[in-house]
Amino acid sequence: MSSMRVHALLFITFFLSGLMQLSHGQTISPSRMADGKAIDQGIAYVLMLVALLVTYLVH
What we know:
Blueprint: H1 2-23, H2 36-58
InterPro entries: AGP16/20/22/41 (IPR009424)
Transmembrane segments: 41-58
Organism: Dioscorea zingiberensis
């Protein structure tokens, strides 16, 4: 149970650090909001997170 807490703490730390970086980032102009590269990168991050969670649950 202790290792699960450590993994959860690490996950929350990385997640919150990503949110902090977003909050300090530049504002996005409306013309750049539909950038295809950014959308692809967002989908890739979500898929990696899903793969990580599935691997964690199976292991």
